[in-house]
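Hey team,

Filing this mostly as a record. A colleague (T.K.) asked me to run one chain through the structure pipeline before their review meeting, and I want the input and output archived in the tracker in case anyone asks later how it was produced. No errors, nothing strange. Just documentation.

Input sequence:
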Amino acid sequence: MYNHAPLDYVCPFCALVANMEHEHLLSRRDDIVLSRGSVTAFIGLRQWPNNPGGVIVIPNEHFENIYDLPAHLAVEIHAVAQAIAIAMKAAFGCDGVSTRQHNEPAGNQDVWHYHLHVTPRYTGDNFYGTRGENMPAPQRAELAQRLTAHLMNCKPMPQKPPIRDRR
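Output structure:
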């Protein structure tokens, strides 16, 4: 619909999901904290100085942005984001969690594959006053291991029964 990827675009997120090696792929298999069904979550390459452990949640199939993403995948992505957020509280002792998602150049999207950021937050962390930097692979792998250990113990939140129209 509203797409901006160049015709010769090599999607780094698709390459990660496919376990491909490519010069544009800086994330590694060790960064992955969860992969189930049609969704994968991994420690992001760029980390903020006061908020290490930020995760990116993606659909395994390529959709460029929110305009293209099927609603059923949005539900799966947010279920995974919820599990990640709960595990972050235990793994990193954070005071809260932020989620954010960008679309198109004016929305600061910089990878042309839909993705949702889940970031551990701390009181007074100055998140919006700092800039993220690429974190070395060994440090990302250590964060992934910590988070994965808590994800295994994370119970999904109970689902409410659907609301029925009583007309």
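Quick notes for T.K.: The chain has a mean pLDDT of 91. The two ends are 36 Å apart (CA to CA).
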